[in-house]
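Worked example 3 (structure in, sequence out).
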């Protein structure tokens, strides 16, 4: 069944739609991740990097990158017939961070993509979601040639609470990204249940 169509004799299922953010530093793979899983052609707002932006666009470690997201990436994936995720990739550069407040409105949770070669670039995203109490997982994007570290080392380096999941992923691989998105939904549901229990006790 896809959006209102169902097998003969069965009532149509109205899917629940959830909003997930994909955040992280410049060049960490957010656009790639959204494109890897989206079942529609992703909406992208990319512009070419220019000489004028060179002083503020740090391309160290991502020298091959020639474009940057200036507003958002958008994609959609159906996890089950009754569960659809809308994915919003945030811009990674500081001068576009004003977009984050609008994009985070109504979000169930977030993926913070991390590159072990530039781990400090995702500090701002981690801090943003912690301060706003938005559940998030950290997805360590396993770039070719990048050093691999145990999950606990990444957790300590980012000073994450023990309950924040840290997952290894490949932003180019659909199944790997799906696992991370399932992890976000499950984590957000756990956090929501814990908050409701705290309120009622």
């Amino acid at each position: 069944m896809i959006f209102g169509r169902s097998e003969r004799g069965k009532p149509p299922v109205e899917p629940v739609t959830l909003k997930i953010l994909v955040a992280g530093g410049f060049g960490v793979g957010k656009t790639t991740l959204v494109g890897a899983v989206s079942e529609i052609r992703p909406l992208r707002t990319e512009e070419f990097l220019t000489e004028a932006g060179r002083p503020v666009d740090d391309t160290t470690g991502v020298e091959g990158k020639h474009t940057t997201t200036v507003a958002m990436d958008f994609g959609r994936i159906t996890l089950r017939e009754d569960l659809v995720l809308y994915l919003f990739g945030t811009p990674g550069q500081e001068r576009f961070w004003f977009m984050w407040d609008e994009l985070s409105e109504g979000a169930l949770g977030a993926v913070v993509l991390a590159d072990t070669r530039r781990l400090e670039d995702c500090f701002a995203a981690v801090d943003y979601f912690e301060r706003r109490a938005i559940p998030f997982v950290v997805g360590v994007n396993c770039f070719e040639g990048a050093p691999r570290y145990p999950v606990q080392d990444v957790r300590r380096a980012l000073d994450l609470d023990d309950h924040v999941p840290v997952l290894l992923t490949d932003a180019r691989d659909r199944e790997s990204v799906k696992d991370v998105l399932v992890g976000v939904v499950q984590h957000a549901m756990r956090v929501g249940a814990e908050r409701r229990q705290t309120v009622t006790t």
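Notes: The first strand starts at residue 16 and ends at 24. Residues 1-5, 49-57 have pLDDT under 50 and may be disordered.
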